[in-house]
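pasting for ref
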Amino acid sequence: MRALQRVGDGHGGVVELHGDPGSGKTRLLAQLMAAALDQGVRVLDGRCYPAERDAFCVFTRALGDLVTPQGLARLSPAHAELVRAGLCARRSRTDPPPQPLPLSQAVHALLADAAGGGLLLVLDDFHWADPKSLEFADHLVRWSLRAPLLIVIAHRPRQADPLLLSTLAYGAEQGRVTRVGLGPISPEQAARLLNVRPDTGWLRSAYRESQGNILNLLVLGESAPLRPSLTADLVTGRLAPLTAELELLNPVERLVAESGAVLGDRFTREELADVCELPFDEVCAAVTGLIRLDILRPLPHSATQFVFRQPVLRELVHERADHCRRQQAHRRALTVLNRRAAPAAERAVHIELSTSTFTPEDLETLARAGKEAALSAPEDAVRWLLLALRGLASEDRSPGRLLGLVPPLARALQATDCLNDNEALRRLLTQDAGIRPDEAHHAAIRVCVLVECLHGRFAEADTLLRTELARACSAADTDLLARLTIFRGIVSSLCNDGELAALASAALQLARSGGRATTLAGALSLHALAELTAGRTTRSLAAYDAAVRQMDELPNAEMRLHTEYFALLGWCALSLGRPQEAESRYARGIAVSAGRSPDTMLPTLLSGLAEAQLRQGRLNSARRSAADAADLAGHLGADRLRAYAMAQEALCITYAEPPGSSRASARTEEALRALHYWSDTWHSLAVLTVAESLLLQGSQERCLDLLLDLGAPDLGALSPPLRTRAYELLALASVSSGTRAALWAECASRALEVCPLPHTQAYALLARGHVLTQQKEPARAITAYQKAERLFDGAQLRLQSLRAAERTARAASSGGRPEEAEGLWTAALALADHWHVPLFAQLPSGSPQEGPHERGRPSAAPSPVPLAPDLAPLTRRELEVARLVGTGRRTREVAETLRVSPRTIEVHLSRIYRKLEIGSRAELARLMAVRISTDARTQTS
């Protein structure tokens, strides 16, 4: 612009404008010509084209307006004849053109005559100029201009002829040429170019991919925020100059360029030869030609690898290649990349573009690529993971393998704003999944929220739901508002944040005002759980019954995207003491989940099914369900749920094995090691379940330690229906360890006031019976136990009913009532045998009576003297812990002695049990007693 101002002052000059293709040279020239016209400066312009090789073509076009009879008349006859011979209709003449030097003198005179009021001559794309024009330009630049004439020569340095480059460089050295180079624009300039805010989400990736090139940015901007899609409008519009360049390629160069476009961002001559299947020498020659045309460039700091000058150019070459040939080339490129051990993401591109029928190896690569690209290239990751899920589902019906892909899919979905603006990915998500296209966004939100919850990130799940609620409010979609509010209520029930009641009420109101039938079923289920948590049992029962009726009317097909409602209703049934109904809800949810794509809710449903089966005494079924839930939760990375399922499996094995089972102890220790310092519903359930296993195995102190960590005496981490169960376990553990149990029995009675259900009354009666047994009141204890047994039996809680029967018999035995005890033991043992519960299927050691079970049996052989245990595997600290625990000290006492935390002692105990292959403190005490005795005998001798 400063050079243009000098023209207005009567001075001339030459400007060199250089830059890479798409850097904005033509755009800048257009602005310069517009500014010249505004100043009253005459403008002449000409552009070179790659296909034109006739002499002086560009000058013929540029100076055509000056070559008029009036203009020629003002020149000398010699100059006029030279202008006619050199610039007038050269294509129709056969005589040779005039020499550039005399012609340039004539044109100088012509330009000087026309530049009276100022003249701008623009020569664009001069790197494609013919040899005569290049020589002519050399003379123009070398001669001093004594008129207000500005000549601007625009070119691409990499494609420019050496003569042009040397001429302009020499002119710059002499001060006659002003050099202007166009490089990448800044991110702020890119935002202004695309008319978006600098903090627009997709702008950063678009700027990075475009490398600050204006043409690339404009192409990306037209398709943002998606990946570039080279539509016909783009190819014939902004990319038309690039398309014209490709037309210059000969067949071999075109094939090599297409092979490079297939290979991707970088490639070698050898790889190009493998893909295009041409002799290596031909490929080398073609690469040299493509470099000369600036289609390819050597990779910086590499002598063997090459890249396209622009990503958009590579995509244009790829798009214009023959479809069938391109597919075959992608398969050959995959072989090359496998040989190179390229990243999975690079190979996934070729798998996706080479076939629609994937091999098992293809599917594994797609899955691995999706995991790797979940955050760096989320759109690609979503596409690859969905393809892998669909393909693996038809190849392998193992749900664990498929569910392992769900967490990275959820991360990628969140990075793409849950497909909010990606129609292609929405179609891929809903294809063959039984989901309507309009449900794609909600399906993506559901997956993301469930994964966040399973990973214990409840705050993140709630934030995601709040964002979606804000969008739904603006769209006035009442059903969607209700569904999202239900989800927030589910999250609240898991993290115990105190908002469950308000959310359940809001969800029910929304569902009744404009929700679908499925949404109403979910809202009623959440409302039932909220009322029960708040201690309003009557309202909870009414809401539960309404939810059951509503859900029973719905076909499975409508529940495919709402299996969490089955889990919600199943948990309500369990909390209300209805395990059979709970089992039917969980089983239906599992059946609905059994589709082509894996359901993230499956491990939660299996864990709920295991709980329902366990409470009914169906130990084998419950153990299988819990094991499946633990396995699937492990694949999902759901550590909290996995710990709970492992605790369920341990409790099943404890009941299903005889007393003192090392297998039960080992599984319980595994479940203990899976527990961490969490504060959510799954953790509380896991602690409660492991505590019951420990108590049944005789580890009363460890049971107490675990339960006290739940916030005793209030046990606020537990819902009201679970508190009475916890208090009963605390009471029994306290009785067994010799401490006061009355406190916990009183707590159970108070909890009953909040949640007066038959099974909670039964737990409170059990706790009361334990206290009465400790107080040597067997008659009253037996009465309490028998009432509890009847209540448990009425609720189909068979294991607890059996526990009550066993405690009844123990109370009679310890109370000196042998005849009554014999009958009670007979009934309890028969019941245990009928329900296949080996833990209670034999008389406990130390029973005072010898009824029919003992009479007639041969006396047991004296127990062999145990050998001294080998304590060599234990570390010094573990040996200290073993000696102290072996003397009967409690965990806290040992921790105080060794000046460590109780949790550290628990960790040491777990390792000690594993190394010595034992499962309880009682076994450790026996082993340490033997060791102490052996050491004493050794010292005496």
